[in-house]
Amino acid sequence: MPDLGKYAFAVLSSYAASLLLLVALVGWTMWRGARVKAQLREVEARQERENG
Amino acid sequence: MSIWEYANPKRFMQTSAWVLPWVAVLALACLVAGLIWGFFFTPDDFRQGSTVKIIYLHVPSAMMAINAWVMMLVTSLIWLVRRHHVSALAAKAAAPIGLTFTVIALVTGAFWGQPMWGTWWAWDPRLTSFLILTLFYLGYIALWQAVENPDTAADLTAVLCLVGSVFALLSRYAVLFWNQGLHQGASLSLDKEENVADVFWLPLLVCIAGFVLLFVALVLMRTRTEIRARRLQALLARERLA
Amino acid sequence: MELSVSDLAVARGGLRVLEGLSFRLAAGRALILRGPNGVGKTTLLRTLAGLQPPLVGQVSLPPEAIAYAAHADGLKAVLTVAENLEFWAAIHGTDRVGRALEEMNLVALRNRLAANLSAGQKRRLGLARLLVTGREMWLLDEPTVSLDAASVALFGGVVRAHLAAGGAALIATHIDLGLAEAEVLELGPYRAKSPAAGGARGDFDEVFG
Amino acid sequence: MELSVSDLAVARGGLRVLEGLSFRLAAGRALILRGPNGVGKTTLLRTLAGLQPPLVGQVSLPPEAIAYAAHADGLKAVLTVAENLEFWAAIHGTDRVGRALEEMNLVALRNRLAANLSAGQKRRLGLARLLVTGREMWLLDEPTVSLDAASVALFGGVVRAHLAAGGAALIATHIDLGLAEAEVLELGPYRAKSPAAGGARGDFDEVFG
Amino acid sequence: MGALLSRDLRLAMRAGGGFGLGLAFFLLLAVLVPLGVGPEGGTLGRIAPGILWVGALLACLLSLDRIFALDFEDGSLDLLATSPMPLEAVVAVKALAHWMVTGVPLTLVAPVLGVLLNLPVEGYGWLVLSLALGTPALSVIGAFGAALVVGVKRGGLLLSLLVLPLYVPTLIFGAEVVKRGAAGLEVAVPLLLLAGITLAAGALLPFAAAAAIRINLR
Amino acid sequence: MGALLSRDLRLAMRAGGGFGLGLAFFLLLAVLVPLGVGPEGGTLGRIAPGILWVGALLACLLSLDRIFALDFEDGSLDLLATSPMPLEAVVAVKALAHWMVTGVPLTLVAPVLGVLLNLPVEGYGWLVLSLALGTPALSVIGAFGAALVVGVKRGGLLLSLLVLPLYVPTLIFGAEVVKRGAAGLEVAVPLLLLAGITLAAGALLPFAAAAAIRINLR
Ligand code: HEM
Ligand SMILES: Nc1ncnc2c1ncn2[C@@H]1O[C@H](COP(=O)(O)OP(=O)(O)OP(=O)(O)O)[C@@H](O)[C@H]1O
Ligand SMILES: Nc1ncnc2c1ncn2[C@@H]1O[C@H](COP(=O)(O)OP(=O)(O)OP(=O)(O)O)[C@@H](O)[C@H]1O
Ligand SMILES: [Mg+2]
Ligand SMILES: [Mg+2]
Questions:
Q1: Which residues of D touch E84 (CB under 8 A)?
Q2: Which residue ranges does UniProt annotate as crossing the membrane (chains E, F) (predicted)?
């Protein structure tokens, strides 16, 4: 851990806030991706069954 | 083969499935390397002390916040002119990413400004235009959400993006004009590249590369999701009609 | 003047609803569109009126020759009957307000605010607007909704006079208008087929092969 | 439970439209209201439902016993079919959502957003709401608008079952519902007379003698 | 009651429901005012309490016409009026739902906008407290105004005119709390008056609003 | 063109048309802000140009959704789109009508409100001039925003979110003219820029708005 001196709060909060936002964005993206993929697979399977 | 072939959804899905993992891994590698390098292994600035470490988040996110809007502008134009659906969906996918980067730039800027300028916020032209950019992102996203028909939404948001870009530029100059001659926010910012010493510059470059790659990876991922969502909607609608 | 439509396909909400539609409608003739709810009558009329582009196919008449009467009448509640008509006459550059009022039996109501009309009178006013447009091809979407029998007959006469004067009319309706001479086009057979049944595929079908 | 109306007069927009109306409607019976457009059917139903006060006359049933279905269905486009019904069931404190879905043939659509229903399906959902209110006296204003023949028959069956279970229905309609056992009340004779013809004078008539 | 509340919240959350737009508008105002007034921190800090309160009020105002107008247009209001639920309770619940989707988020983000407007540090706590106490009054008064204009087409502007004068006391006391708090003065009196307005409005106005709706439905 | 203009003006004048409401809102805002900000003359005078401009902007905003939404709902917009009049001209005329019923009256009463807000004497001329030059841009930009949301139910708040950022340059230059004018400084540059925005917006945005309406009618 480097010595951040009197600015420790500013630097650490910046990193924490940014990483939090990035992780939230990536997490949301992956979650929604997985959900839509699953829904699509389900509907495709259902329509396959009904038409097939 | 024309580059437009990639605008075919199927083609895009195949290609992006292949490219995405590489970009994602590379993005992660660059981000981790750049941030660790910057955070742990760079010296403090003689004037700004350790706050200079914020630069590794602040500058890349600020750059990408603007670039994301430019990318949305380009894809919107492509949609309006050539009617490639993937293009419109890529614009839709990029907006929340751009918004997040804008917020990161604002937040890190605020944390930086507190020790440097003695205030969390000053109505400095650059800061102000970023706040206005946030508003454009919010409006763009809200319009996508409010319109139900996907093609209508794509058209309307594309028009908004075009007109909005012109006004965003105009606002930028207006804001510069507005804060001239008045009390200038104590700007310690190292405005010119030359001011940044190599010790800071190299890890910064790695971080910028990381943010660019992260942006690409996220846009690819989200565009894939939007394509799937669009197809899902089409299938359900057809079920309805039958 | 002739409206000829060839191999038309129209879409609503991104979905193809009618396809393979071809017909001709010559001056002096009327054509009745029939079909169950939701088959796509309104969509077809809006396409012909130029409000939405066709998916494929050609429409011979430019929108400038067409007067479209939709479900909504486009009346302003705070204008009088005459003012409403005068506005549309001015927009279309004609001066037939007086005649239109007479033909649709609205003379007695000319100075009444549209807000104070009954539903049937409102509908009559909406139909009178067709007369002041001076256009020859009428596209009518359920024109007789909420009209009583006498008004339906009156309107039938107006359509017949329009045809006799060289106009033409395309009418989507579920009820009998008393236009014995009109041909009928049943839209059921032109319903768009689902891809499973060999129909055209949507924009996004190719994504997953 | 019996709805009895005696010497009722109702007004719309400050004008008396119907007067001298008296009828009884017992449990297990249906009554069809007939009359030309504008005679005051909607006004009468709204008065009986307690949404507006009668000018004169008595209504025996309190509004709490009455379920009113107007032209507008009160559906929320962004809620699903089941969510729409569940809301009204919760408001009325009943739990008949499942049965209502079955009776109005909506089970297959239960998870579809109301926005994505066709006009006829929307109307079916609006009528299903009557079933979840659990109330006995139904007041229906043109309930079969935009329903196709099969749905009209389905709805006729639902009304008959409601009557058989001790309910009652008062239905304003222009078309035939296939309820042969229902009585018909023609509203034309109850049209309010103008003061010149000996009718009641309005609030402001006396001012000018 | 719970059913109506959860329905209204759900409607606000789903697409087109407008949740979050009030927030965005609040943010917009906090940007526009400095752009008009000029960037000097001192002036901004002095007017910040007033501007923030006016902003909260306008953000609230702009979403008022959704409270009843949508239900009126699709016929739900007729049906609610003939339901077993008293119309007074309907009004109260709908005002509560409106507060939860506008007042609460506004209160929570207000400190961030305080930063933009250079609000003195001492003011933040009072800003949040005064908004938390005052915004319910805004929603209830607004519901009354919305009930008055429920039959008027696109009555948004008329609604603003009716409601703004009614908002004056809330605005004055709310802004006064923040101003005094920021200056380190005594705040008890305006705070109590603010709470009093909220309580009185919440207790009485639903009855007036229900009466207005009954008249409009007639 | 004349017919459409006179119809729109007549609609605005008749009952429920909302003429004068924008004005009343402007007035209310000029009253509310001193109430929120406090009465000290120095501060008020300094913020007066900005507040007046923000007020004009909001008053304009509140009546925007009437430009197309009413015509869309009753079907007139479909009929206008199929009429011989180009949709671009329809948009331009409607924006003009909106300006005549909001922008012009706002400009005319602004000096009165200047008095309420302690605007320095030198500022009055510039206030009127800047509003006269700038409000047409507000109407045209607003018409573009209204065209974007014409299909959205009760889209008032969404409309504000879309339109307000587009108002930023107009607001800045407009307020700057008044501020500099009041301080006796040079105003030529912002005045020219303001006029430029109005001209450019008036020349180009009707095309974008007409495109948006066509998309929404589809
Ligand atoms: C919340 C407020 C802030 C915002 C929105 C903001 C925004 C920006 C933007 C847009 C850039 C340009 C990035 C590019 O395209 O190269 C930038 C760069 C920069 N900012 Fe900030 N900034 C903020 C606060 C600060 C503060 C407080 C400091 C330090 C005192 C600072 C220091 C820098 C530096 C050193 C650069 C790099 C300049 C360069 O390499 O060209 N910023 N910022
Ligand atoms: N926004 C939409 N999204 C998806 N499908 C829609 C949308 N609007 C309409 N539809 C569907 O498009 C089809 C055609 O609608 P259209 O209004 O043209 O039917 P119509 O023949 O005019 O019916 P009606 O006899 O009821 O007037 C219908 O099945 C309808 O469900
Ligand atoms: N706001 C109003 N002001 C004055 N008269 C009105 C108003 N609203 C309706 N009317 C009149 O009141 C009468 C009764 O209207 P009502 O809606 O009850 O008729 P209805 O029998 O239901 O007609 P429909 O068969 O068309 O549904 C009509 O003649 C109508 O013109
Ligand atoms: Mg139709
Ligand atoms: Mg009726």
A1: 64, 91-93
A2: 12-35, 47-68, 89-117, 123-150, 157-175, 187-213
With an 8 Å Cβ cutoff, are F152 and B147 in contact? yes
Q: Three-state DSSP class for D19?
A: strand
Residue nearest to atom 3 of ligand 3 (CA): D13
B110 lines ligand 1 (CB under 6 A): yes
Q: How far apart are the CA of B242 and the nearest CA of chain D, in angstroms?
A: 12
CB of B204 closer than 8 Å to CB of F202: no
- Indicate the pLDDT class of residue B241, thresholds 50, 70 and 90: low
A·C CB contacts under 8 A: 3
Q: How many CB atoms lie within 10 A of CB B75?
A: 25
Do B183 and E40 lie within an 8 Å CB cutoff? yes
**Domain interval for residue B186:** 19-241
Q: Residue B136 above 90 pLDDT?
A: yes
Pairing between β-strand C66-69 and β-strand C137-141 as defined by DSSP bridges: parallel
pLDDT of residue B188: 42
Residue C37 has its nearest CB partner, among D36, D38, D120, at D120
Nearest to B182 among E27, E38, E116 (CB): E38
Give the distance from CA B233 to its chain's centroid. 27
Paired tokens of C96 = 């037939």
The span from the CA of E63 to the CA of E52, in Å, is 17
Is residue C80 a part of any domain in this protein?
yes
3-state secondary structure of D41: helix
Upper half-sphere CA count for residue E136 (Cβ side, 13 Å): 19
* CATH number, domain containing residue D92: 3.40.50.300
Query: How far apart are the C-alpha atoms of B129 and B179, rounded to whole Å?
Result: 11
Please count the structural domains in chain D.
1
Flag whether the ipTM exceeds 0.90. Answer: no
- E104 C-beta neighbours (distance < 10 Å), count: 14
**CB C52 within 8 Å of CB F218:** yes
Q: Is B13 an 8 Å CB contact of chain C?
A: yes
- Determine, yes or no, domain membership for C57: yes
Across the interface, whether the CB atoms of E28 and B146 are under 8 A apart is answered: no
**Residue C70 in 3-state DSSP?**
coil
C41 CA → ligand 4 middle, Å: 6
Residue C105 domain-assigned? Answer: yes
By C-alpha distance, the chain C residue nearest D142 is C146
Q: Which segment of B171-185, C15-29, D87-101, E23-37 scores lowest on mean pLDDT?
A: B171-185
The answer to whether the beta carbons of residues F146 and F73 sit under 8 Å apart is no
- Three-state DSSP at C192 gives coil
C98 touches chain D (CB under 8 A): no
> Of C123, C122, C143, C133, whose CA–CA distance to C80 is shortest?
C122
What average pLDDT score do residues B93-106 get? 95
The distance of A46 to chain B (nearest Cα, Å) reads 11
Ligand 2 atom 28: residue of nearest CA: C38
**Smallest CA separation from ligand 3 atom 6, residue:** D13
Domain count within chain B: 1
Smallest CA separation from ligand 1 atom 34, residue: B189
CB of B116 within 6 A of ligand 1: the answer is yes
Residue B129 lies in a domain: yes
Ramachandran angles phi, psi of F179, nearest 5°: -60, -50
Alpha helices in C52-148 (DSSP H): 81-92, 97-103, 119-133
Question: Looking at residue B153, what is its pLDDT?
Answer: 92
**DSSP, res C38:** T
Domain range for C119: 2-190
What one-character DSSP code corresponds to residue C80?
Answer: B
B55 lines ligand 1 (CB under 6 A): yes
Instruction: Write down which chains contact chain E via at least 3 CB pairs under 8 A.
Output: B, D, F
The set of residues, in sequence order, having a beta carbon less than 8 Å from that of C143 and lying 6+ positions away, is C69, C123, C127, C155, C171, C173
The pLDDT > 70 percentage for chain D reads 91
Q: What angle do CA E96, E99, E102 make, to 5 degrees?
A: 150
Whether C206 maps to a domain, the answer reads: no
